[in-house]
Amino acid sequence: MAAIEARGLIKTFGSLRAVDGVSFQVERGETYGLLGPNGAGKTSIMRMLAGLSPISGGELFLSGLNVAEQPRAVRTRLGVVTQADGLDGELSVRQNLEVFGFLIGLSRREARARADEVLGFFRLRERGNAEVDELSGGMRRRLAIARALMGKPEVVVLDEPSTGLDPESRIRVWEELAELKRADVTLLMSTHYMDEAETLCDRIAIMHSGRILDEDTPPELIRRHAGSAALDLRPSGSSRADIRDALTNAGLRFREVGAVIRVTGGNGAPPVLPPLEGVQVSERAANLEDVFLALAGRGLQEEQP
Length: 305
Prior knowledge:
- It is a single chain.
- The chain is built from eleven helices and 14 strands.
- Helices cover 34% and strands 28% of the residues.
- Strand 1 (4-13) and strand 2 form a beta hairpin.
- It is globular.
- The chain folds into two domains: 4-220, Rossmann fold; 222-303, Alpha-Beta Plaits, CATH 3.30.70.
């Protein structure tokens, strides 16, 4: 039985289809990423799974439970970490956890014991009596994830788990999410950080305008849509218009990113440039950002049927 399964899932807001017939499956113990620009439908999917937003169409299951028909049973198996941490600044770190434990049905003794466990797991035990406002951004984020684990959920939903964190705090959060995976917890996460998705996710669904454009492991997505290598072109005498024309005539896929024109291959092959003058060319390994730009970049809406 899959941990999460969506079948033709739809979410509408008036005439807008924020989620447009999406189907996917997340296996137990898997970390599955939803990757896409703002408005792609990632948060809408997570809100429907968490019971925070009604399902407009299709079906959504968690561990075989129908989310629309069995919301209470689903909530006992699910932990949710939203973009806003929602921590109570008037309570201490430990009290935030214990009070949440009471709210989800733990006894006082169970809540205290579980709070101690998750504080230790996230290396926050020494800050247990501190006020929430005294914590750094990284510690607050770790506390929000710790709170979601109070009920020992089978599945944890994380909406942008490391947004706004400094690099060191992001890495600490990544380490602890990897520990959860080793404990066989299923993770469904959305992110704008390509390195985060590539590091943490077993599989990724790249979304745009409420639809899944492609889904696979990060290495396979890179192989299929960006090839084995990518080329960064910087004009140094030639005009950008001339470079664009040459690349277009050669049938190459490219995106302009600031001062750089990025050229990608596909199906495992590196791109082969036509003769170009007045251009500085550097080769590097293709990455998930190249895939994202290829699939969900500017002009995609016109390119998709």
